[in-house]
Amino acid sequence: MTFLRLPLLIACLSLPTFLSLQTFAAPGASTSSAAATQDQTEPAATAPSSTAQELYASAQSDLLQIRVLLKNGHSQSAVGSGFLIGTSNLVITNFHVVSQIALEPDTYLGEFKDTLGKSGDIELLAVDVQHDLAVVRVNRKGTGFFNLTERPAVLSQGEHLYSLGNPLDLGFFISEGTYNGISHRGFSEQIMFTGPVNPGMSGGPNVTANGQVAGINVAHRRDGELVSFLVPATFAQKLVASITDSSKPPEDFKPIIGEQLLAHQTIMMNTLLATPLTSKTLGPYSVPVRESEQVRCWGSSDSKREKTYKTDQINCRMESAIFVSNDLQTGQIAINHKFVQTDQLNSLRFSNLTGKLFNNRLNSNTKDEDITTSHCKEEFIANDKFNSRAVVCVEGYKKFAGLYNFTLFTASTDEPLMSLQSRLDIDGVSFENGQKFVSQFLAGLVKNPNSTKSLSMKTNAATSGDNSTATALPTGTALSNSGVSSKKEAK
Predict the structure, then answer these.
(1) What is 55-89 written as a DSSP string?
(2) Model-level pTM?
(3) Domain 18-28+47-250 class?
């Protein structure tokens, strides 16, 4: 299985106990006489967490590994974890564990394996793409250990929590960690768990010391240490409550997934468009950004001595995305502003340079199974004495009607020795919401008065040599009307 790949997050973490359940003894098991007569001068071994032992002993019968298999050859394609709810035959797991079954039922099937090695078929009944949850039905019932309640577990900072699952297909493990609050980096809350949630544990339960389900394992940060995330159990409870004894699998999950993606983009865009975009200054220009809990912005500068130009950048990106498949993650935006200036090149050479720097290409992929070929429109625009070339490209989702990707490229054309280049990516939104955000973004590109001639570097070299003028972007710069940007990473 796979996990969310997110940008850098620095966190101070505590080290939990990590316990392999294959070595656990049942609580209360007798010790050998040899151990009882051990030389008292030897230091005693550190005892594993008795709480973790007791939890596993009680929970092991209701823990399952969820496996997705290729029908042709019956070979394993993805693995995750799950757990039986109450005394029912319903199992909670992550959507990203079973997404192949939902999207390609003719190609993939699913099965479970329990802690004793027994296996059976699974039947996918319901999905919640926004919260990365799914419910499957199996041919056995739970013991009643794991129960979901409408009210969330009341947790305190630093409280011990325990995640269970089958990491890396090695066997069933339990990892001990701590609760560290709620993450609001996405448009749905997630519990921050300072403890191991490794590949293969997705969909497994996370419980309190008394066995109450706090959340469902969903992701970890690859760039951090023990920075893990859980889906709050209340979302799982709502999904399970929508299923009855007579519920049957939908004939096609794609319309259901499409409706959920549209609902998510409504929440996302209503939040992002609720207030005007924030303005930042780059050289003589004001540029639009969106800074919020969901969108993080970072600045950088490149002015190495051996270079003939200086570049300042602002990059903004969401730290969450909706997983649809290994090839498609959606529901996110990214903004890049690049300000380039020189005092060593003449205007013609600088024009050639900025034309090469301008990234207005989409990777060609006419055979993409998820996204249509791009349709692009180019215009020269003027806004408060700011002249630029703008290209906007739109792609549709083949499997989910009403969803689109928007990409906007702009390059200033009003200064011979400085250039502002901007890019906006919006993935998985309605056509109307995409147009709204593009319009707000273009309106936010402004040239500040009385600053057009100010450069931070000397201008001696720029005034020598060929004094011919040229626009910041050569007219011959081409645009490929195909494919989607490859910057996105899968979970």
Answers:
(1) HHHHHGGGEEEEEEEETTTTEEEEEEEEEE-TTSS
(2) 0.81
(3) mainly beta
